[in-house]
Each structure stands twice: as C-alpha cells, then as structure tokens.
TrEMBL record:
Family: Belongs to the binding-protein-dependent transport system permease family. CysTW subfamily.
Record protein name field: Molybdenum transport system permease
Source species: Caulobacter radicis
Bilayer-spanning residue ranges: 6-28, 40-62, 82-102, 134-155, 194-212
InterPro entries xrefs: MetI-like (IPR000515), MetI-like_sf (IPR035906), ModB_ABC (IPR011867)
Gene this chain is encoded by: modB
Amino acid sequence: MVEAVWLTLKLATVTTVLLLLLATPLAWWLARGRSPLKPFVGALVALPIVLPPTVLGFYLLIALGPESPLMTAFKPFGIRTLAFTFEGLVIGSLVYSLPFAVQPLRNAFLAIGDEPLEVAATLGAGKADIFTRVALPLALPGYAVAALLAFAHTIGEFGVVMMLGGGIPGETQVLSIEIYRLVESLEWDKAHQLSALLLAFGFLAALTLLLLEKRRSAPA
C-alpha cells in the first residue's frame, strides 16, 4: 500500500514538472499566435478531456508497444517497448493531463492583454525578455492552477494507467489500480482507507482551486 502511494506521488510529481515545461510554449502560442492551425491544435490538446481514458490508453499501448514504428529509434539501446513501464506511465500521463496544464496557462497569458507586452516592446525589450520579465510574472497564478490541476488529475487517473501499465507492483501499480485490486480481492477495509485518502486529497485540491480563484478575482 505504501509502495503504491509513493509510486503515485512520484508519477504525479514527474508528470507535473514536465507538463509545465511542455505546456508553457504551447499555451503561449495558443494565446498569442496567429496561425490558422490554432483551432485544430487546440482541439487536439483538448481531446483527452472528451476521449474515454481506455481509448486513449489503448492507442498509447499500441504506440509504445514493441511493434510500433515509434519504438524503432529505441531498439539500438535495447528498449523494445515502453508499455508496462514507469516511463510509459509518464508518457501516458503527459498526454492525458496535457489540457489541464495548457488551458490554465493559455487563459493566464490571454488575461495579460496586449498593453504590458507592447509597453515592454516600446522600451526596447526583446521577445525573450518580454516573455521572461513581463509575461511569466503576470501569469504566475495560472501556473499555480495548472500545477495543481495536472498533479490532481494524474493522481486520480485510472483508465490510461490500467491499459498502459497493467498494475505491476512497484512499477506501474498506482493508487487507483491498487484500490481496484483490493476491491477485486474483497479487501474492503484497505480499499476504504485508500479511497478515503484520495477523497480527502480531492477535496483539498478543489478547495485550493476555489481559494486561488477567489484571490485572483478579488479587487486590488
């Protein structure tokens, strides 16, 4: 049980850190870019929200399996598959939780407006300086929301990790899979303990999000 808790926290932490790094340029482009491809990319990013997790997990299982063309580049290193591995779970979690990181960051970048960026540009700031010294500080509340959502969403995922990880103890058996296993084996007391733990965490996450939103909307 402790092993499942540790593995879940490890997966959520790694996923959240990587998501914030990956989602930042994508959210900035979706917020400030002018490409006609934006609606299509935005829809692709949002797809995990509407797609059944088992469907997403099934296609990820194929993509990361030994027969996938994507795995060809890894074969010289002795890696035939990433399915049923922790690394595979990280990839699956990145895809599954991507919209929960991108959307808050996109909204934060949109909320900045054009004026602060234009003022910085007229003062001679380059694009990199405008982003790091103006946009990022103003978007910090969005980063807090994105990090919390990505972390909480990864903690609670089931369908994707079940399809892609299979519930290998110590490798891919996260909390949601452990609860499922305990219920199957009629270990109700232990299932209650873990379920209550996730229930408490979910409540605290939702409460924190509401408090963050209230603080952002409060008049200065």
